[in-house]
Amino acid sequence: MAIFNKLRNLDAYPKVNEDFYRRTLSGGLVTIFSSILIGFLFLSELRLYLYSGTETQLVVDTSRGERLRVNFDVTFPLLRCSLIAVDTMDISGEQHYDIRHDILKKRLDNHGNVIASRQDGVGAPKIEKPLQRHGGRLDHNETYCGSCYGAEVADDDCCNSCEEVREAYRKKGWGLSNPELIDQCTREGYFNQIKEEEGEGCNINGFVDVSKVAGNFHFAAGKSLHHNQDLISDLLDVQLGNHNITHKINKLSFGEEFPGVVNPLDGAKWTHHTSSGIYQYFIKVVPTVYTDLTGNKIQSNQFSVTEHFRDDNNVHPKPPPGVYFIYDFSPIKVIYTEGKVSFLHFLTNICAIIGGVFTVAGIIDSFIYHGQRAIKKKIDLGKHR
């Protein structure tokens, strides 16, 4: 009992006898208002606790020798798939022409509906077994090695597709004067494919892997046909250099996407009204690192862009018409770090809100109560006089 008495003496919150307090209308109104205010502030604190904030930091980008993936999804409603080549080049001298891996082309009709979808390349063989380099047809279990028709660099070089033959000729600086006689082109139906796609559009999507230095990638129209343009024009009635490069950029991003990123070219459209020219996008890429709450880092990029159309009617020789994305990198890196209020901080704020609101409410109620009593006392004194 002595221990309980000592604890009773330590009670910092002595209870007020019911005879010494009264419930009033003003007190009820203040209690309701303060409860609503506490509820609103509680929800506000809960939202801050549940949803993370982001801290931004700018640093000098010192990274070197990295690679960058450029993701794209572009639609050319008036340009057939067989005439579009994807090229990349940069200031370090790295160049890649007519890239085919990791790229998917979709043939579109004049209403924008997909006719066919294929990994870049031309169709399957349509005639007998492929012709071997030694002159015979491919035998059972024999490894295929097609002829490069005089463009071989080494004795063991093989050209197993029409594209590889054309590339071998390009490296030699030769024109492919009789492509209809090339076994690979005939089997793959290269020219039939171009004829079949007349009046169609093309959606091309995928990615290219480039060095993290200034450079460009572009969609060149008809570039692969220029080495033998006279023959192609006669065979296919293709107006080389007069391709309509009207396009829509469905998606364009540099690196992996992160929460909150805005790619300014997503959904951008441009309509070609002249007979020739190239459309250029000048892009400033800003390296970005996003760190989420779990500590996972996303290495990505943001970018800004300006646009320009160049009419090449009076330029000789004319560059292949197309859409060019010319990019450079900012020396500043942006670092985003997700942060979150700790649970202890959340509890502290809630306790402070409850205590603060009820304290202020008690003071207001006390002022109201004593004011009412003072007014009543004056009224009573007036009556007695």
Describe this structure in words.
- The chain is of the alpha+beta class.
- The chain folds into three domains: 24-52 and 340-374; 58-120 and 201-338, no CATH class; 124-188, no CATH class.
- Helix content is 28%, strand content 29%.
- It is built from seven helices and 14 strands.
- The protein has helices at residues 2-9, 25-50, 162-172, 183-187, 190-196, 229-236, 343-384; strands spanning 53-60, 67-76, 84-90, 95-96, 103-108, 114-119, 201-211, 215-221, 247-254, 268-270, 278-291, 297-310, 322-329, 332-339.
- Strands 1, 3, 4, 8, 11, 12, 13 and 14 form an eight-stranded mixed β-sheet that branches.
- Helix 2 packs antiparallel against helix 7 (343-384).
- It starts with a helix and ends with a helix.
- Its main location: membrane.
- This is Endoplasmic reticulum vesicle transporter C-terminal domain-containing protein.
Binned strand content? 25-35%
Would you report the number of β strands?
A: 14
Structure annotation, total helices: 7
Total of domains: 3
Question: How is the quaternary structure best described?
Answer: single chain
Radius of gyration: 37 Å
Report the helical percentage: 25-40%
**Major sheet size, sense and barrel closure:** 8 strands, mixed
Separation of the first and last Cα atoms? 57 Å
**What structural class do helix, strand and pairing data support?**
alpha+beta
Order of helices and strands: HHEEEEEEHHHEEHEEEEEEH
Low-confidence stretches: 121-127, 224-240
How would you describe the shape? elongated
- Mean pLDDT score: 77
Organism: Asparagus officinalis (Garden asparagus)
Pfam family, one: ERGIC_N
Transmembrane segments: 20-43, 343-368
Subcellular location: Membrane
